[in-house]
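Here is a typical protein record:
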Amino acid sequence: MIDATTDTRADDDAAASPSILLIDDDLELCDLLREFFAQEGMRLETANDGRRGLGAALDSDRDLVLLDVMMPGLDGFELLRLLRRRSQVPVIMLTARSAKADRLAGLGAGADDYVPKPFDPDELLARVRAVLRRVGRAPQPVAPLDAEGIRLIPTAREVRVGGEVVATTTFEYEILEYLVRAAGRIVSRDELTAALYHRRSTPFDRAIDVHVSRLRKKLGPLGAAVRTVRGAGYLFRSDPEDQAPR
């Protein structure tokens, strides 16, 4: 049986978690920072060019924007000038251009901070937290998720069974957290693939099945809670009856 407060916690966590927008044309960096900030209880969305980034910054209620300077088309300095005509959302500029004149230009255009590339993610996180504290939007701790003897700790991306840590891969943890948050609802392979890999699944794509199979084994008897619904997807449900995974 799932803790009745799980869905409420998920909604509360989403509301409490700061919304951060990263505007950067480096796709690999965007993926790395999205995962890094998720571990810290922060929602990071991305836009990979200046014009889309400006639209995303203006169309949604953001708590903070991380803005790369060197982008094709609309660069970071011009984007910031346009953004400041309509919004005072805090902005931290990211750039490989570390000359004093560039830092002054960014701050003069309305940036709240300026972080040169390459940077240590922990340093960037410290700068982000400092800016969020100044505007009263420091992140709240993400509550653990409890489901019939399985405990997930999102901030540490850790799974515990009976108080013992279960060693999981990144994808195994993400699959389990996704299914626990959707407990009682069938989640299709297409949905999981889109959420984890940010792409569509194919008829020959069995990666999700492999991860689920390994996850079940690691969870031992409690792995029966991760059920396969033939032709539909997966369902997280733990009852006293019918404990064998299908």
In short: The chain has nine helices and eleven strands. The CA atoms of residues 118 and 214 lie 36 Å apart.
